[in-house]
């Protein structure tokens, strides 16, 4: 299950220079119902890795790890629990990149913009439960 962007499979070499992350829509059929989710994801994450014994500093006050930049989006299946469980259960999930962003603030803004644009809180076909932790779906 690959990411799609403009109708084509998105690969790591297609990441624009200085791109920070992207806005995505994930869709699946869960329990016979078509559902979707709008979210954001960074292309890279700074991951701490422990230094080997040889590379360890002799001074105990110094860091015992180094930061490594890793590409983390390929195996990402949303922060939504229903989509995560559907993936574990083998349900096909369509993953589509709808916007590439170049800063952290642009990424956050575009996520909120698309969530309001698609009306994710107004329809049961969207799995988003809130926007920014401030606006929530109405319990009916």
Structural class category: alpha+beta
Please give the share of residues in helix: 10-25%
Give the amount of beta strand, in percent.
35-45%
Rg estimate, integer Å: 18 Å
Largest sheet: 5 strands, mixed
Query: What is the end-to-end distance?
Result: 34 Å
The secondary-structure element order is EEEEEEHEHEE
Instruction: Note the overall shape.
Output: elongated
What's the structural domain tally? 1
Number of helices: 2
Description:
- With 140 residues, this protein is an alpha+beta fold.
- It has one domain.
- 16% of the residues lie in helices and 37% in strands.
- The chain has two helices and nine strands, in the order E-E-E-E-E-E-H-E-H-E-E.
- The protein has helices at 81-88, 104-118, and strands at 3-5, 8-9, 21-30, 33-42, 44-50, 65-71, 93-101, 130-131, 135-136.
- It has a five-stranded mixed β-sheet.
- Strand 8 (130-131) and strand 9 form a beta hairpin.
- The longest helix is centred in the last third of the chain and has 15 residues, at 104-118.
- The chain is elongated.
- The mean pLDDT is 88.
């Amino acid at each position: 299950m690959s990411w799609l962007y403009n109708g084509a499979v998105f690969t790591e070499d297609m990441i624009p220079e200085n791109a920070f992350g992207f806005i995505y829509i994930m869709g699946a059929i869960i329990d016979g119902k078509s559902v979707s989710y709008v979210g954001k994801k960074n292309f890279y994450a700074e991951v701490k890795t422990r230094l080997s014994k040889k590379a360890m500093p002799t001074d105990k006050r110094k860091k015992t790890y180094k930061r490594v930049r890793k590409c983390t989006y390929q195996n990402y299946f949303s922060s939504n629990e229903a989509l995560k469980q559907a993936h574990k259960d083998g349900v096909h999930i369509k993953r589509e990149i709808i916007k590439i962003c170049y800063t952290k603030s642009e990424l956050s803004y575009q996520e909120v913009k698309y969530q309001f644009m698609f009306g994710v809180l107004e329809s049961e076909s969207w799995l988003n439960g809130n926007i920014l932790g401030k606006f929530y779906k109405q319990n009916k």
